[in-house]
Design brief:
CATH architecture of the largest domain: 3-Layer(aba) Sandwich
Number of domains: 3
Strand order of the largest sheet: 2-1-3-4-5
CATH superfamily of the largest domain: Resolvase, N-terminal catalytic domain
Number of helices: 8
CATH topology of the largest domain: Rossmann fold
Distance between the termini: 68 Å
Shape: globular
Strand content: 5-15%
Number of strands: 5
Order of helices and strands: EHEHEHHEEHHHH
Largest sheet: 5 strands, mixed
Helix content: 40-55%
Length: 209
Amino acid sequence: MREGEETHPVKAAIYARVSTTDQTNSIQVRELKDYVGHRGWTLASVYQDQMSGAKTSRPGLDQLMADARRRKFDAVIVWKLDRFGRSLVHCVSGIQELASLGVRFIATSQGLDTDESNPASKLLMHILAAVAQFERELIRERVSAGMKAASKHGTKTGNAIGRPRRIFDRDEVARLRATGLSIEKIASKMAIGVGTVVRVLRTGGNISA
């Protein structure tokens, strides 16, 4: 039996993501397949996305989570934590759901493994969960403060009073447009709406009305 090989081979799913369609997942996928093979595990499936991690919905990740709920595999293998979630809160939430389904999560380059027999990883998960909860509380406080400020001044933003506006670099939007990048790709790269990009470009005279 090879080192790391288990009596009953683990069925592992690989998830890989790159930020743009100009990049490829091939390096991540190859390294993750090597990781699975070295342990004598069975490769159940490979899930991939080529889009910003800030996207709320990602076809590859959505399918992976759907298959996890059907228990099609025993473990999810990713190269790095930020390949999996769009934020720490999202990462921890996804990992906790996998754990509740009995699915192990491994980030190979960071030594993160939610195997119940790994005390160091269990401690790390507790720390990540605590930090994620802290992040949630900060978001709630910002939203609450924004709502109070807007209510005081009698203003509204969108459908919710005082919803904080997303902070982004307007000059970077113009610079990306100048390189020939499409409005849709700029929106994806900056994690803002297409309408916001159009408004910024119109204000700066970089797009025709």
